[in-house]
Amino acid sequence: MGPQEILSYIVTVLGIALCAFSAAFMLRGKAIPGSGSSPQVIKYKDFEVRTNAIIMLMIVSVAVSVMPLGLQAYVDLHRKLPPVVAAAPAIPEKTTIFVDGHVADESGADMEQAIVTATNTDTQSQLKEVQTDQSGAFDLPLKDVSRTRDRIKLVVRKEGYKPQTFILRAESVTIPAVLVKREKQP
User: Fold this and answer.
1) Which pTM does this prediction carry?
2) Which end of the chain is less crowded, N or C, counting CB atoms within 10 A of the terminal residue's CB?
3) 150 confidence band (pLDDT: 50, 70, 90)
4) Which long-range contacts link 84-89 to residues 24+ away (Cβ below 8 Å)?
5) Which residues of 25-57 are buried (b: 16+ CB within 10 A; e: fewer)?
């Protein structure tokens, strides 16, 4: 039994004690000090009840004693019901993704033997490194990559050119890379 259930039982017991207290005054048949002779009015939309203070106290105490148990029963009922959600197909935690692309220089000419390096940004481990072929193309299958957590840093570089960096989510993608020549140092 958890603290919420204990609290609901305590509130219920207090509500029942309040009911017994107001019932004792009603059965005694005497007015309580301060109740006056003017009736109390309970209004809700088109519903209206006129009553004296003791009956009003009885109504409130019945509500106070019943509500916690009703709410607890409602919560318990919904805890026991299985969720009505269609299960999505499970995505494997680790998978192989395919990154392919084409590397060209700033004039659009194919760049052969450019180096493409893939690194897992979360673990800082190098996954794979390949060189482009004579047409500037590369294929980079990356194994054991998490689709939900891992991000891939892809660096394309070649001597004499500024490296180009891409940050990818772990999914298959095609990368068009353009390398720009470095300015010569004086």
Assistant:
1) 0.48
2) C
3) confident
4) none
5) beeeeeeeeeeeeeebeeeeeeeeeeebbbbbb
